[in-house]
Amino acid sequence: MRKRISLLAAAGLVALGLTTPAAAADPVFPLIGPSAIGLRLHPGTPTGVAKESLLAFSLDPGTTTGFQGEFTFTVDLGKLAGIADVRENPAAAHPSCVRAAATLVCKATGITPGVRPGFELLVGAAKGSADGASADLTVTGSVKGATVKPVTTKVTVGGPDLVMDRLPLKADLVPGQKQPVPLAFANTGNRAAHGVVLELAATRGMEFVETYDNCTTRADGVTGVTLCTFEGDFGPGEAYELADPLTLRATGRAFDDQLGYGIYETGSRPQAAAALAARSGAGSGTGKVLAVKKRPAATSGKTATDLEPGDNRREFAFHTANTADFTATGATVQAKAGQTVTAEVGLRNQGPAWIGRPRVGESVARTDVRIPAGSFVTKKPDACRAVNADGGERTAEQQLGAPRYFCASGASVLEDEQVRYAFELRVDQVVEGAAGKGSVSVGEQAPQGVTPHRFDPKTDNNTAEIVLNAKGGASPTPGRPSGSPSPSTSVSPSASASPSGTPVPVAGTGGGTPNGNLASTGSSAAPLALGAAMLLAAGGALYVAFRRRTGRA
User: Fold this and answer.
1) d(Cα 340, Cα 481) in Å, to the nearest integer?
2) 220-229, 308-317, 350-359, 438-447: which has the minimum mean pLDDT?
3) Tell me: the pLDDT tens digits for 230-246?
4) Which of 149, 385, 396, 418 has CB 3.0 to 4.6 Å from 348, enough for a Cys bridge?
5) Helix, strand and coil in the chain, % to nearest 5
6) What's the rounded Cα separation, in Å, for the pair 255 and 320?
7) φ and ψ at 43, to 5 degrees?
8) How many CA atoms lie within 13 A of 82 on its CB side?
């Protein structure tokens, strides 16, 4: 009976939710690495040395941010005996691997936000290895307080090696200017590639004129990525080119832009397979198919896994003679002493050009905000950092109540986009007239503030006022009492002293659905929600997105 009562009591506690809560599960950190890698054949001579390929493994920095601990990675080399030789890359930033029997044990400590904890290996075909021989290389990991998900890479001796030729493009352009894009590639490996995918990644100011049914485009606010699929075998030692050159046009919004172009074997990237699947119903419906033809001989001079992914992809940078008018936006707010109001200030790009620095991730513009006299900043946007009145630095503990703030726009500002920063101001003293005014200035960051951008022809609108309690009570842009809903177009104030953050853009509508149109590679108006994306360098993913990062204001 006593046991039955105890069970009933326990059941009652469960029903009421009064039992001790279960401990949270340990976080899971997946290891990232290639699914397959191909190796060049060993020369076979007594003194011959195999050409090595770089093999990198890492954890996603987004999942490990804030996690502290020492990660141990174990590379199982047992299945590679007689097929491939593996060693740590001696040029790696932080060598940390030790050989132990048929394993390599590597460690990564001191996790830093934005830095991938991991290691690099060099892999070459073993002497006496047969063409086509393959085995799995598995990496496991461990760390106290978390689980590391392992990754396996198939290592194969021999394969295709697709090499993209460099394009002889014109770099300096004017809006509306067109030029041919005679894309060509070769297979310098020792095995055929079974189907290929052409990747074209153009930033917002550049677009292709033609549309084809075997090409699929996805665009975000900064970059449009087009994948064109070609069936058939592309043999070793053969060179290919487009049957008809594409045409690239600088649009009216062009300024500093980039084109990434690459060639990959179908299935060598997850995105390539996705492109094939997406072709059903996603083409342009023009009835035209982009085709390739053989060239007389392989001219790239450069072996089914690509032996050297670094030469699959090239990039080209353009500069278009264009301008962008950055305008400062101020605010007028009304409040009595003791009240707290929200003042929204910022900048607007009135075009015609979009401005971006996605490769380096630097902020395009700085907004210099001087707070009105008599007020105290109780909350600030994450994208803004406090400085002294003379522009001097303040500590992390001094981020509220500063007389001045430097705000970062992020790595791109689209044409017709507005970026707003919302400050919560507590009115300690009503100061009317000019003495009570603050200011907003927009420009290129300078040591003590801002300086005009080289692309901005109108500097008279780079400064605006912040008016607190205008004479007569006029309030064309009224402040909001603290606690009232914030408009979706503003940057949410934050009490955090963090100097980083991304302002919320105002302009732009959706992109991201397949439309099968080469011409729309840079035409979507949607700003990137995560910030600017960057074009990945050699061997990067097919879907190349600029990651918008807010630079130091």
Assistant:
1) 6
2) 308-317
3) 999 999 999 999 999 89
4) 418
5) 10, 40, 50
6) 5
7) -60, -25
8) 4
